[in-house]
Structure of Vimentin:
Amino acid sequence: MHTQAIFELGQEAERLLQLALQNLNTLKTTSFTTQQDENYFGQSPTGSVVPPKFCPRGIQVQQALLQNELRKITQHEMVLAIVGTVKAGKSTTINAIIGTEVLPNRNRPMTALPTLIRHTPGQREPVLHFPYVQPIEELMQALQLRLQQTERETLGRHLEIDRDMAGLLTRITMGESFAKHYLGAQPIFHCLKSLNDLVRLSKALDVAFPFKAYAAIEHVPVIEVEFVHLAGINESYGQLTLLDTPGPNEAGQPHLQKMLQEQLAQASAVLAVLDYTQLKSVSDEDVRKAILGASSSVPLYVLVNKFDQKDRNGDDEAQVKTLISGTLMKGMIEPNHVFPVSSMWGYLANRARHELALHGMLPDPDEHRWVQDFADAALGRRWRSTDLIDSESLRQSAELLWEDSQFAFPIKKVLHAAHANASMYALRSACQKLLVYTQGAEDYLNFRCQGLRIASEQLQRNIAALEDDMRLATDSQQSASAVAQSNVNQAVQTMEDFIRRYELQINANIADYFLQGTVPEKLTRQALSFGTRRGIDFDARNETLSFDDEQSAQIALHRIRASCEVILTAAQEKMTEELMHLFSFLEVELADTLRNTLKPIEARVAQGLTQAGFRTNISLPVFHVGLLNFNANQAFNQLIEEQDIPVAQLRRPAGMRGTVARWLNSDEWGWEGYTVMQSRYVISLPDVQRKLSEHIASFLLQLNQTMTVQIEYAVSEGMTAFFADFSQALDAIHLNLQQSLIARQQNEDAVTALRQQLQQCLRTTRYIHEDTRLLRDDIQTLFTVEQP
């Protein structure tokens, strides 16, 4: 590590950050920041909640962001933000990364507040610091008053009162507050669970939770613990910290999406945790949008958890990397930054390895549930207590489970690299934030300087014209929505026709199969791709298959099901490809519709839109094979019918005649006929075909309905976001013009002083920009040298 070089680069980064903060403070105190400007924002015609970057409130946001970068530079801290949903296994993933359990796992959201987990060498037992606890204490006092006015029965109708919640209610009633320090896993679990239950309780009692008080990263709880994977590694010149972020809309709090975006903006890099089994779910879609909303200059990584649940028809590792990189993340992430893993296996294997290294044995499984989970995963469901005695065998099993988890590579690629180069990550993050600031500031100041050279009358005409454009934009949204809805209707109709065509094709292939008793020849290639050569499954001349025992009938039915799955899977692959093309075409059509609708307005205010960084981005739900999971097993339930049929048999009669026949041992004389009922197991092939067709029709109908809802929802959401961005850009231009008009209406000396002040800010901004660009290049050069 080039310690001296990093020290010098850090000094330069600190200087530039301080200079940027001073420049922002100068902008905030200039005379054009008037009360009228603030009133303008309170009465924004579009109701925009996102302040322009260079209004007083926007300047404060930028200052807070740069102050955070300055803090990370001085502390040589690299912050890796972890984002994901509760179902994706985010807490389990963090525990696997750290190597021990520091975050509790419950079947509900567990990250209402962001939490920092800082690698602290030698800190074997985790400790949580929560110095900024005052807002929580004030909340508990407010909840105490509200609880005195609320019956427990009434509260129970709006809130699940489990054991944890009951304990929290008692604490609030007794006036017990949160401590500022917690030592050990269990006290930390209890603290974090109580904080999350406070969110649920606040919502039920309609008391505002103080989320805004914890927007600054230095105010959130901090867990200090030694990361097992980093134990014994030589100290790096810097500090690695994980940031556990709240998931979008977690705990029923929609505004957490904004908090998530703010936290991601403060991170040095982002690690997303997605669920392999839910890559197309709405919750994971929210996570992807939050990540894509982060700065493109922030390094992105993705862990695709629950990869151990992949079946033979699921996407393999290469397909997952391509899907996420090229389709879900819109090319914003490199394929080699996507890692399919099993976080649970990784956590269990790592926990077992750690315990065996420290104590030479595992704890009592009756007292530590994770030991039972480890044994299930590593030894199989039939493990015995005696299997936990042989420590060497357990080490081998833990190593194999760790290998199967596929966690080793991302640990080396992300965690080790981040730890070894924490200072450089912090420096690179600071450069990225500085460049974003200077680019926006230079555009803004150029615009303001130009405005001071324009006569007041001209500015008034520009403002009036822009206000007309703003009204026109609002009216245009209705016409654009009508055109977009027409596109949607056409796409939905195309999809219905497409699904109907495939239903006919699938049923034709199924009918062909039942006519021949084997998979149609045209699908032989698909059958062979599964590693199975399909032969004759049954004699197609018979409508029923009859067997003496149930096992034989089950085997025959299994062969039929396997052949039908080949037919369905072949259709699935073709449907996936065509639907992906359909969705891509619709996305392009809608983007063109919006651009054409606003093109006249954009042409008149092109300069302002460029300064605002106006972008259009409509994200439709991409189509993936996971949505086409034909569960053929449902179609094969209860298809074997047990029948009692009469069977004619012979026997010797009782009495003298029968006795003489046995003496003579005759096969022809001395026998009488009789009938018995015998069980047979019958499969009706027409019933199998009918039930399979019904299953296909039901599935495709459901698929059509699901796709229609997703398309309509995505288009509506995209249209709203598109016009909100457009209106926000016009609002910013409107404010800039108003500020210029206010300045021009002052006396000439005041205008001259303001022009000189703005020009000095502009020169300083350009100076910061150029030095930051050079600093970025130096950091990147050193970063390349230091990479393994």
About this structure: The chain has a mean pLDDT of 78. Residues 1-69+746-788 form one domain. The first strand starts at residue 77 and ends at 84.
